[in-house]
Amino acid sequence: MIVFNVHDMTCGHCAGLINKAVHDIDPAARVEIDLTTHRVTIASATAEAGELRQAIQEAGYTPEVVS
């Protein structure tokens, strides 16, 4: 599991864009988004944290990896 805090994700539209960005990298990824905590949890068999972080950044957001 890869977990990001995305503090500038504030609404369902934001969540949808992030979900799409992740699925563009790995269509089989499981994505859980919690708008209240601004947390995105991703289970991916093919993509690494750096790739997913870049995809979210390209969608216009600032993900921070949670260790």
UniProtKB/TrEMBL annotation:
<dbReference type="InterPro" id="IPR036163">
    <property type="entry name" value="HMA_dom_sf"/>
</dbReference>
<dbReference type="InterPro" id="IPR006121">
    <property type="entry name" value="HMA_dom"/>
</dbReference>
<protein>
    <submittedName>
        <fullName>Copper chaperone</fullName>
    </submittedName>
</protein>
<dbReference type="Pfam" id="PF00403">
    <property type="entry name" value="HMA"/>
</dbReference>
<dbReference type="InterPro" id="IPR017969">
    <property type="entry name" value="Heavy-metal-associated_CS"/>
</dbReference>
<keyword id="KW-0479">Metal-binding</keyword>
<feature type="domain" description="HMA">
    <location>
        <begin position="1"/>
        <end position="64"/>
    </location>
</feature>
<dbReference type="GO" id="GO:0046872">
    <property type="term" value="F:metal ion binding"/>
</dbReference>
